[in-house]
Structures are given as C-alpha cells and as structure tokens.
Design brief:
- Keywords: Flavoprotein, FMN, NADP, Nucleotide-binding, Oxidoreductase, RNA-binding, tRNA processing, tRNA-binding.
- Catalyzes the synthesis of 5,6-dihydrouridine (D), a modified base found in the D-loop of most tRNAs, via the reduction of the C5-C6 double bond in target uridines. Specifically modifies U20 and U20a in tRNAs.
- With about 350 residues, the chain is α/β, with parallel strands linked by helices.
- The chain folds into two domains: about 260 residues, TIM Barrel, CATH 3.20.20.70; about 80 residues.
- It has 18 helices and eight strands.
- An eight-stranded parallel beta sheet has the order 1-8-7-6-5-4-3-2.
- The longest helix has 20 residues.
Length: about 350
C-alpha cells in the first residue's frame, strides 16, 4: 500500500483493531485534544459520526479540577466512550488527586500533556517544557497510575524541543519512560515544540514534520503502542501511517471537516453497519440541543452549534448553514429548531444543484 490508498491493505488491520482484553476498540484512530474545541458538545457530535474512534477532552489543568468544581471540567455525555481525559500539570501529587477525581466520571484513559508549547502553559511549568525533565515526567506518570491503577495512563509529547534535529534525544526520552513507568501508549506529535519565538499556531505549522522519527520509535520499541499526530488530513494519509505505527490521531481536520470521520468505522474498524448520513446526524444534534436546553443549566444554543459549522463541508449550501448557525440574531432565541431549519436550506441548495446536472 505504500504511496497509495488501498482498502485491501486497510482491511488487514481489522483482526487487531478491537482490544481482546476489554470491550474498548484499540486506538487505531483518535481525535486530538484541542483547547476550546473538543469540549463535551463537540465530542457528542463526533460520537454521532463515528462509534469507535477515541475522543479526547481539551487539556484541563489538574489544579482546576482539584481546587475548583470538578463537575464543571469533567462532566461529559454518556455516549462519548471511548473517551480520554487530558491533564496538564507538573506536580505529581496534584496530578494524582486530579486523576482520582476523574475516575468517578468513567474516563477510559488519562493522558498527560507534554506537548503544548504555549507561553501560558510554560508559566505553569507543564506542557512541552516537561520534556526537558524526563525524571519529573516519570514521577507524574507513576503518581497518576498509582492513584488510578485501573485506568491506563498515557502521554502525548513532541519529537523534541526547540531546534533539536537528532532522533536520539527522542528515543532516550521514550526509552527512559519505558523503563521507569508502566506507561505503554505514547502519542507523538511529529514536530518539535519551540518554546520561544513561535506562537502556538506557528508551532503547529512551522517546525517540520518528521514522521520518520515516529516510525523509528515503533521499530525501536515494538512493545509500545505508538500513535502518530501532526498534519494528518486525509484517509489516504491515515492508511499510509498505519503501515508503520499503531494508530493515528487527527486534529484540526476532524474539527473543521468532521464528516471525514463518517466512514472511519467501516474503513478502519471493520464496522458492518452503514455509516450515518448528514441528515441522520443533524437530527441527533437537534435532539441533543433540545435536551441540553431543557435542563436550563446555563448551556445556550451557541455553545453547541459553534462546533457544527464544518459538518456540511463540501456541500452546496454549506455557506448558508454556517451563516445561519453563527447569526447572533437567530441564536438569541435559543431555538434548537434552527439546526433543522439550516439543514433544510442545505437540502434545497443540494437539490437545486443536482437538478441542474
């Protein structure tokens, strides 16, 4: 399959993509934790599109959970599993306490962020700068695992810091954690994190992608589960990466074009049920919005539909869908029917286009 997308080659993954130890699917595919984006409303939508893909929360500061209102940060929908909580922090005791609180919310995994390069995160001495102190990272992972022995503790990190260009420091980092902790799942963003001189956005674009480094990790540590992240935008790329690593994590493309996930269950998990249509998904989103608004717990329509704007990506009528779901005047009344009305406009545009053909 090298260099091209082959369904036959993808199907070869079917026999190994369900975890025989638990009822959970393996992490063949996952959606990256993204600040302000992968909240519970986005995760609900994503779960309507794909049943088996792993979903991740936004990074949540461990201190906010321990010293604040845990329910505010950890509340989730029952339908989200398999779902992982990503924590940010550098104090082992605090991370352990946060993990214990999170265990009450039935997360399937707790992930330690060692990849975020933002100045705000660096001020808290966590994120990507943790890669400079592998012993502290090991202490954090061990404290979390000791606190919640039944929940897998994983890590997400970069391939290096600043302008480091060699593979060996990455291998040393992973090898040290392999020896000192029980962590066996490493999610690797295939770019360096520049701690100075680049914005978070630039850190996602300017440092070059080195997929070969991540592939080498899998070769050197075959017993580890290696998940690749960074720059993945198509199913073809997913299939190519799966020749070398255990799983693929997609970020922004899965947010801006969420319907790309609609055939993942079929292509990568061997699902035999038909993929959901956009119309079916829209109906589920309407039902969800109706339920959320009826609870009167502070959720407003805008909190939900801001995540739906990319659902019609590539369709005639996508522009009017986005316009209606971001119109302040239309959103002011908190009418969940707006979702169905916007979809009706898309259907009209689609029908008009098809009639011309």
């Amino acid at each position: 399959m090298k260099g091209s997308f082959s369904l036959k080659a993808v199907f070869l993954h079917y026999n190994s993509n369900m975890n025989t130890q638990t009822s959970l699917p393996k992490r063949t595919l996952s959606v990256a934790p993204m600040l302000d984006w992968t909240d519970r409303h986005y995760r609900h939508m994503a779960r309507q599109i794909t049943r088996h893909t792993w979903l991740y929360t936004e990074m949540i500061n461990a201190g906010a959970i321990v010293y604040g209102d845990p329910d505010r940060f950890l509340q989730r929908n029952e339908c989200e599993n398999p779902v992982a909580l990503q924590l940010g922090g550098s104090e082992p005791t605090l991370l352990a306490q946060a993990a214990q609180k999170a265990a009450q919310y039935s997360y399937d995994e707790i992930n330690l962020n060692c990849g975020c390069p933002s100045p705000r995160v660096q001020k808290g001495a966590f994120g990507a700068c943790l890669m400079l102190d592998v012993n502290l990272v090991a202490d954090c992972l061990n404290a979390m695992q000791d606190a919640v022995p039944a929940i897998p503790i994983t890590i997400k990190h970069r391939i290096g810091i600043d302008k480091q260009t060699e593979y060996q420091p990455l291998a040393d980092f992973v090898g040290s954690l392999h020896d000192k902790t029980a962590c066996r799942t490493f999610i690797v963003h295939a770019r360096n994190a520049w701690l100075d001189g680049l914005s978070p956005k630039e850190n996602r674009e300017i440092p070059p992608l080195r997929y070969d480094f991540v592939y080498r990790l899998k070769q050197e540590f075959p017993d580890l589960e290696i998940i690749i992240n960074g720059g993945v935008q198509t199913n073809t790329q997913i299939a190519e990466h799966l020749q070398h690593v255990d799983g693929v994590m997609m970020g922004r493309e899965a947010y801006h074009n969420p319907y790309i996930m609609h055939d993942w269950d079929t292509l990568f998990y061997g699902e035999t049920q038909p993929a959901p249509t956009r119309e079916q998904i829209t109906q589920q989103l309407y039902n969800y919005a109706t339920q959320q608004l009826s609870r009167q717990q502070g959720t407003i329509l805008r909190h939900m539909v801001r995540h739906y704007l990319g659902l019609t990506h590539g369709l005639n009528g996508a522009k009017i869908w986005r316009r209606m779901l971001s119109d302040a005047d239309l959103l002011r009344d908190n009418r969940p029917e707006l979702i169905l009305e916007a979809w009706q406009q898309v259907e009209k545009m689609q029908a008009a286009f098809e009639s011309k053909g």
